[in-house]
């Protein structure tokens, strides 16, 4: 029977309950010196009559928890130093009972113990405390309740400069605490940490380059986690890694310059992704926002994560992660801020780098081209983004500039202060450049992945839409002042139109119609025509190739009807004059005669 059950059993007795209540009231009246004497007598009785008196100490210890917890810890340390095989069941039970209601006091007492051994004032005071670290490890192994506060306090007090001191103390560890057993014990304890587990792993990873034993311990922990994942066993550390705070720490460490930390975090993400696929998807979306020029390690981590791990057949796909990024681009383009546009450019540029990296075949993790396949399967969403961006481009037929950006602000720039007006003009230029770069990057992706070609996954409606947008992109780039950029964009247009029109007549027809319409009417100023010719009449004509085709067809139909009516009239005149003689099989009137169209 544990201490909690024993307390509940004895508290059912009204006499014992009254006696303990009276004792607690008396303890509350004691001063500092008297309480020290009382605690000494209580602990002496505890040592003499353990384990039968444990529940009394645990119950009355709540009257002055800090003092009782500190004394119990010191009693346990003394017993452990005398007998390293002592299980300390009584001390562990009392500390576990008191920690449930007095966790803060337990943390204070543990901090005092750690500071006494890690920050000794003199060399002489260090000798009695050389067994403190193995003693606290022993308490952690005996009780999961004590494991978490011990880990938390240690992480708060630990500094890397204390490593030499710990190495020195390890030489004086108990004889039954050899290095191999310590590794096994610490590995088991690390996987049982339910809070701050990511801090434990990253602390070891950052010190692994300097201390080989940290690297070995880290490898033991990672192998233990892999076994738990493969065997589908519960693990508090894996559960801790899936919470939101740990995810942010993992994403930040993916950009670390420390090679061991970088590789460790990638392995952890791949491990927990098999249990929580959403982490895999959000990690892809998060790392796509990393600028490759300032933080290349982030793109390296993304390339490694895209390849998967563990050789498992059921592993998360890349598509949901890409969909999250494309949705973020669509939302950001609606907000129309410079920061949002800059982030969209970063995402699209990273996608382009990944596609080029996959095509090069330099990475063994990207041989299956997971990102290229995901982009092809989500090409319709990419086209939707391109369509919305091109709709923001308003052709300036008079000046021939590429486009003007429509601001949401209703206040004219002239009415704003000079500083604000200058800022708004610079901001407007930044936004315009970002929109321009987004369009170029999307078109480059479409061209590199042969989207719209014969083997494309797009439907006919999307192919026609792509053909029309390619033509708009062509006319828009005619206004590009940089000849090199204009030539590069033209080559992309020719490549895209060739892929779309070579195997689809409908796409070829739509592209030719839009090219003629743009050259003759919409963008005629780009080919030397007057942008706004004076109208010959007061009636404003709707000039477009479609309307002209319709008018031409109507006029042709009318001309054919008039010609048919004239031939019918001539036939009747010939019959009246007797110049026509019917033969076998002839009717009374020509086959094409329409009596309703005859005059009169």
From TrEMBL:
Pfam families: INTS5_C, INTS5_N. The keyword Signal applies. GO terms for biological process: snRNA 3'-end processing. Residues 88-563 form the Integrator complex subunit 5 C-terminal domain. Residues 2-81 form the Integrator complex subunit 5 N-terminal domain. Keywords: Signal. GO terms for cellular component: integrator complex. The keyword Signal applies. Residues 1-28 form the signal peptide. It comes from the Eukaryota. PANTHER family: INTEGRATOR COMPLEX SUBUNIT 5 (PTHR31697). This is Uncharacterized protein.
């Amino acid at each position: 029977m544990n201490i909690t059950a024993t307390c509940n059993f004895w508290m059912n007795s009204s006499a014992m309950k009254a006696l303990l209540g009276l004792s607690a009231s008396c303890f509350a009246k004691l001063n500092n010196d008297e309480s020290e004497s009382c605690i000494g007598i209580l602990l002496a009785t505890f040592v003499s009559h353990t384990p039968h008196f444990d529940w009394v100490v645990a119950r009355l210890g709540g009257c002055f928890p800090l003092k009782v917890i500190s004394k119990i810890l010191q009693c346990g340390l003394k017993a452990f130093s005398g007998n390293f095989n002592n299980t300390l069941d009584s001390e562990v039970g009392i500390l576990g009972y008191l920690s449930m209601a007095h966790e803060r006091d337990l943390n204070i007492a543990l901090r005092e113990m750690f500071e006494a051994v890690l920050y000794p004032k003199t060399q002489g005071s260090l000798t009695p405390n050389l067994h403190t670290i193995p003693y606290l490890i022993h308490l952690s192994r005996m009780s999961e309740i004590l494991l978490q506060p011990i880990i938390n306090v240690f992480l708060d007090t630990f500094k890397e400069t204390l490593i030499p001191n710990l190495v020195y103390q390890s030489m004086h560890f108990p004889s039954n605490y050899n290095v191999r057993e310590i590794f096994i014990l610490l590995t088991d304890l690390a996987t049982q940490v339910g809070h701050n587990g990511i801090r434990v792993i990253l602390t070891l990873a950052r010190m692994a380059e300097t201390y080989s034993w940290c690297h070995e311990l880290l490898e033991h922990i990672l192998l233990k986690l892999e076994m738990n994942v493969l065997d589908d066993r519960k693990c508090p550390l894996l559960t801790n890694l899936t919470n939101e705070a740990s995810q942010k720490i993992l994403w930040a460490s993916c950009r670390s310059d420390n090679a061991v930390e970088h590789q460790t975090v990638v392995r952890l993400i791949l491990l927990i992704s098999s249990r929580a696929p959403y982490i895999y998807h959000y990690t892809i979306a998060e790392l796509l926002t990393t600028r490759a020029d300032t933080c290349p390690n982030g793109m390296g981590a993304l390339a490694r994560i895209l390849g998967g791990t563990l050789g498992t057949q059921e592993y998360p796909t890349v598509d949901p992660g890409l969909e999250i990024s494309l949705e973020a681009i669509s939302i950001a383009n609606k907000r129309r801020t410079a920061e949002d546009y800059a982030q969209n450019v970063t995402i699209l540029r990273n996608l382009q780098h990944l596609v080029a990296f996959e095509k090069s075949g330099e990475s063994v993790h990207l041989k299956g081209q997971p990102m290229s396949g995901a982009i092809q399967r989500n090409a319709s969403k990419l086209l939707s983004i391109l369509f919305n961006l091109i709709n923001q481009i308003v052709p300036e037929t008079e000046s021939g500039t590429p486009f003007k950006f429509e601001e949401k602000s209703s206040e004219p720039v002239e009415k704003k202060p000079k500083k604000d007006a200058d800022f708004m003009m610079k901001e407007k230029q930044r936004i315009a450049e970002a929109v321009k770069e987004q369009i170029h990057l999307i078109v480059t992706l479409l061209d590199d992945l042969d989207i719209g070609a014969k083997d494309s996954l797009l439907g006919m409606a999307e192919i026609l839409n792509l053909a029309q947008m390619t033509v708009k992109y062509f006319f828009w780039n005619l206004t590009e002042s940089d000849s090199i950029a204009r030539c590069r964009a033209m080559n992309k247009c020719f490549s895209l139109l060739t892929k779309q029109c070579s195997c689809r007549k409908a796409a070829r027809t739509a592209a030719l119609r839009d090219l003629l319409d743009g050259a003759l009417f919409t963008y005629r100023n780009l080919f030397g025509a007057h942008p706004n010719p004076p109208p010959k009449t007061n009636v404003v004509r709707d000039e477009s190739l479609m309307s002209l085709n319709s008018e031409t067809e109507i006029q042709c139909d009318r001309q054919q009807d008039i010609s048919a009516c004239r031939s019918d009239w001539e036939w009747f005149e010939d019959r009246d004059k007797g110049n026509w003689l019917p033969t076998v099989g002839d009717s009374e009137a020509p086959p094409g005669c329409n009596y309703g169209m005859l005059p009169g």
